[in-house]
Specification:
The protein is α+β, with helices and mostly antiparallel strands. It has one domain. The chain is globular.
Length: 221
Protein backbone atom coordinates (compact mmCIF):
# COMPACT_ATOMS: atom_id res chain seq x y z
CA UNK A 1 0.00 0.00 0.00
CA UNK A 2 1.30 3.42 -0.92
CA UNK A 3 1.72 5.89 1.94
CA UNK A 4 2.32 9.62 2.05
CA UNK A 5 5.35 11.12 3.77
CA UNK A 6 3.01 12.88 6.21
CA UNK A 7 1.26 9.59 7.08
CA UNK A 8 4.50 7.78 7.79
CA UNK A 9 5.77 10.64 9.93
CA UNK A 10 2.50 10.89 11.88
CA UNK A 11 2.28 7.17 12.65
CA UNK A 12 5.93 6.78 13.65
CA UNK A 13 5.78 9.75 16.01
CA UNK A 14 2.38 8.67 17.38
CA UNK A 15 3.90 5.38 18.50
CA UNK A 16 6.82 7.09 20.22
CA UNK A 17 9.58 6.56 17.68
CA UNK A 18 11.84 9.21 16.19
CA UNK A 19 11.20 10.40 12.64
CA UNK A 20 14.28 11.88 10.99
CA UNK A 21 13.98 15.03 8.90
CA UNK A 22 16.36 17.23 6.97
CA UNK A 23 18.39 16.91 3.80
CA UNK A 24 19.01 13.19 3.07
CA UNK A 25 18.17 12.15 6.64
CA UNK A 26 16.68 8.75 5.83
CA UNK A 27 13.82 6.83 7.44
CA UNK A 28 13.86 3.13 6.55
CA UNK A 29 10.43 1.75 7.46
CA UNK A 30 9.11 -1.80 7.28
CA UNK A 31 5.44 -2.70 7.74
CA UNK A 32 4.56 -6.27 8.73
CA UNK A 33 1.18 -7.47 7.45
CA UNK A 34 0.51 -9.98 10.28
CA UNK A 35 2.22 -12.19 12.85
CA UNK A 36 2.22 -15.35 10.76
CA UNK A 37 5.08 -16.60 8.60
CA UNK A 38 3.23 -16.86 5.28
CA UNK A 39 6.17 -17.41 2.91
CA UNK A 40 4.61 -14.66 0.76
CA UNK A 41 5.88 -11.20 -0.22
CA UNK A 42 3.04 -9.56 1.69
CA UNK A 43 4.83 -6.78 3.61
CA UNK A 44 5.84 -3.23 2.64
CA UNK A 45 8.99 -1.13 2.81
CA UNK A 46 9.19 2.66 2.68
CA UNK A 47 12.08 5.07 2.45
CA UNK A 48 10.87 8.48 3.61
CA UNK A 49 13.27 11.36 3.25
CA UNK A 50 13.70 15.01 2.32
CA UNK A 51 15.97 16.60 -0.26
CA UNK A 52 16.78 20.21 -1.03
CA UNK A 53 15.60 21.19 -4.47
CA UNK A 54 15.49 24.50 -6.29
CA UNK A 55 12.15 26.27 -6.21
CA UNK A 56 11.79 27.78 -9.68
CA UNK A 57 9.43 30.46 -8.38
CA UNK A 58 11.52 31.72 -5.47
CA UNK A 59 14.96 30.81 -6.82
CA UNK A 60 15.79 29.26 -3.45
CA UNK A 61 16.47 25.67 -2.44
CA UNK A 62 13.73 24.16 -0.27
CA UNK A 63 13.22 20.81 1.40
CA UNK A 64 10.93 18.51 -0.54
CA UNK A 65 9.38 15.28 0.77
CA UNK A 66 9.92 11.92 -0.97
CA UNK A 67 8.72 8.36 -0.42
CA UNK A 68 10.25 5.34 -2.14
CA UNK A 69 8.01 2.27 -1.81
CA UNK A 70 8.69 -1.47 -2.20
CA UNK A 71 5.42 -3.42 -2.19
CA UNK A 72 6.76 -6.96 -2.66
CA UNK A 73 8.76 -7.26 0.52
CA UNK A 74 9.10 -9.45 3.60
CA UNK A 75 9.91 -8.67 7.22
CA UNK A 76 9.63 -12.38 8.07
CA UNK A 77 11.73 -15.46 7.30
CA UNK A 78 10.68 -17.95 4.65
CA UNK A 79 9.28 -21.35 5.56
CA UNK A 80 12.51 -23.16 4.64
CA UNK A 81 14.42 -21.76 7.62
CA UNK A 82 11.37 -21.61 9.87
CA UNK A 83 10.31 -25.24 9.39
CA UNK A 84 12.96 -27.34 7.65
CA UNK A 85 16.46 -26.07 8.51
CA UNK A 86 16.88 -24.18 11.77
CA UNK A 87 20.06 -22.11 11.91
CA UNK A 88 19.56 -21.57 15.64
CA UNK A 89 18.34 -24.16 18.12
CA UNK A 90 15.97 -21.57 19.63
CA UNK A 91 14.18 -21.22 16.30
CA UNK A 92 14.26 -18.93 13.29
CA UNK A 93 14.75 -15.18 13.93
CA UNK A 94 11.88 -12.74 13.43
CA UNK A 95 12.91 -9.11 13.82
CA UNK A 96 10.95 -7.37 16.58
CA UNK A 97 8.64 -4.44 15.98
CA UNK A 98 10.38 -1.23 17.04
CA UNK A 99 13.10 1.21 16.07
CA UNK A 100 16.50 -0.36 15.51
CA UNK A 101 19.03 2.46 15.61
CA UNK A 102 22.01 2.63 13.25
CA UNK A 103 21.89 -1.06 12.33
CA UNK A 104 22.71 -0.94 8.63
CA UNK A 105 25.43 0.27 6.31
CA UNK A 106 26.23 -0.74 2.75
CA UNK A 107 28.26 -3.92 2.44
CA UNK A 108 28.30 -7.29 0.74
CA UNK A 109 25.49 -9.72 1.49
CA UNK A 110 27.18 -13.10 1.95
CA UNK A 111 29.99 -11.76 -0.23
CA UNK A 112 27.74 -11.81 -3.31
CA UNK A 113 26.30 -8.32 -3.92
CA UNK A 114 25.80 -4.91 -2.34
CA UNK A 115 23.09 -4.71 0.27
CA UNK A 116 22.45 -3.17 3.69
CA UNK A 117 24.25 -5.25 6.32
CA UNK A 118 24.13 -5.44 10.10
CA UNK A 119 27.62 -4.91 11.45
CA UNK A 120 27.70 -3.16 14.82
CA UNK A 121 24.44 -2.44 16.60
CA UNK A 122 22.40 -5.27 18.10
CA UNK A 123 18.73 -5.97 17.40
CA UNK A 124 15.96 -7.75 19.24
CA UNK A 125 14.38 -10.77 17.58
CA UNK A 126 11.72 -13.29 18.50
CA UNK A 127 12.05 -17.00 17.82
CA UNK A 128 9.61 -19.50 16.35
CA UNK A 129 10.93 -22.39 18.40
CA UNK A 130 8.02 -24.79 17.84
CA UNK A 131 8.07 -24.27 14.05
CA UNK A 132 4.34 -23.54 13.84
CA UNK A 133 4.78 -20.50 11.58
CA UNK A 134 3.58 -18.03 14.22
CA UNK A 135 5.81 -15.53 16.00
CA UNK A 136 6.41 -16.62 19.62
CA UNK A 137 6.64 -13.28 21.40
CA UNK A 138 7.79 -14.82 24.68
CA UNK A 139 10.99 -16.22 23.12
CA UNK A 140 13.31 -13.20 22.84
CA UNK A 141 16.90 -12.89 21.70
CA UNK A 142 19.23 -9.88 21.41
CA UNK A 143 22.41 -9.60 19.41
CA UNK A 144 24.07 -9.34 16.02
CA UNK A 145 22.50 -12.04 13.85
CA UNK A 146 23.28 -10.79 10.36
CA UNK A 147 19.81 -9.31 9.89
CA UNK A 148 20.46 -7.67 6.53
CA UNK A 149 18.32 -5.90 3.95
CA UNK A 150 18.85 -7.63 0.60
CA UNK A 151 16.91 -8.96 -2.40
CA UNK A 152 15.21 -12.29 -3.12
CA UNK A 153 16.24 -12.93 -6.73
CA UNK A 154 12.66 -12.42 -7.92
CA UNK A 155 11.53 -15.75 -6.42
CA UNK A 156 7.79 -16.46 -6.45
CA UNK A 157 7.89 -17.26 -2.72
CA UNK A 158 10.35 -16.35 0.03
CA UNK A 159 11.63 -19.88 0.64
CA UNK A 160 15.39 -19.85 1.28
CA UNK A 161 15.70 -16.11 0.63
CA UNK A 162 15.24 -15.09 4.25
CA UNK A 163 16.32 -16.60 7.56
CA UNK A 164 15.19 -13.42 9.34
CA UNK A 165 16.51 -10.73 6.99
CA UNK A 166 14.38 -7.95 5.53
CA UNK A 167 14.08 -8.75 1.85
CA UNK A 168 12.85 -7.08 -1.34
CA UNK A 169 11.66 -9.57 -3.94
CA UNK A 170 13.02 -7.58 -6.90
CA UNK A 171 16.76 -6.88 -6.99
CA UNK A 172 16.10 -3.74 -9.06
CA UNK A 173 14.21 -2.24 -6.14
CA UNK A 174 17.17 -2.88 -3.84
CA UNK A 175 19.56 -1.36 -6.36
CA UNK A 176 17.38 1.75 -6.64
CA UNK A 177 17.28 2.03 -2.84
CA UNK A 178 21.07 1.77 -2.66
CA UNK A 179 21.41 4.45 -5.35
CA UNK A 180 19.27 6.89 -3.34
CA UNK A 181 21.15 6.06 -0.14
CA UNK A 182 24.56 6.59 -1.72
CA UNK A 183 23.47 10.02 -2.94
CA UNK A 184 23.06 11.07 0.68
CA UNK A 185 25.94 9.20 2.32
CA UNK A 186 28.04 12.33 2.77
CA UNK A 187 25.20 13.83 4.81
CA UNK A 188 24.13 10.86 6.98
CA UNK A 189 27.41 9.18 7.88
CA UNK A 190 26.71 6.01 5.94
CA UNK A 191 24.53 4.25 8.53
CA UNK A 192 20.77 4.08 8.82
CA UNK A 193 18.15 3.15 11.42
CA UNK A 194 15.18 0.91 10.69
CA UNK A 195 11.69 1.27 12.12
CA UNK A 196 9.57 -1.87 11.89
CA UNK A 197 5.83 -1.40 12.38
CA UNK A 198 2.76 -3.63 12.26
CA UNK A 199 0.09 -2.88 9.66
CA UNK A 200 -2.42 -2.26 12.44
CA UNK A 201 -0.24 0.62 13.72
CA UNK A 202 -1.68 2.65 10.85
CA UNK A 203 -5.13 2.45 12.43
CA UNK A 204 -3.87 5.40 14.46
CA UNK A 205 -4.25 7.63 11.39
CA UNK A 206 -8.00 7.94 12.07
CA UNK A 207 -7.31 9.07 15.63
CA UNK A 208 -4.62 11.49 14.46
CA UNK A 209 -6.96 13.04 11.87
CA UNK A 210 -9.77 13.28 14.44
CA UNK A 211 -7.49 15.17 16.81
CA UNK A 212 -6.58 17.59 14.05
CA UNK A 213 -10.25 18.34 13.42
CA UNK A 214 -11.10 18.88 17.10
CA UNK A 215 -8.01 21.02 17.66
CA UNK A 216 -8.91 23.50 14.93
CA UNK A 217 -10.18 26.84 16.33
CA UNK A 218 -13.85 27.46 15.75
CA UNK A 219 -14.81 30.39 13.62
CA UNK A 220 -16.74 33.12 15.37
CA UNK A 221 -20.30 33.57 14.22
Amino acid sequence: MKRKYSELKAVIEHHGFEFFEGHYNFNFIGVRANNEITNEWDDDFYLAYQKRELNSKTGKKELKDFVFHIDEFTTDPGNYYSKHQLLNEKGVAILARGQHRGIWSIGMHRGKYEAFVQRVNKVQVFRDGNKDGVIDYEVKDFGIFGINLHHGYGAAQIGKNSAGCQVAKDKRKLQELIKIFKAGMSYNGGTVSYTLLDAEDFNALKLIEARKVTSKPRKKK
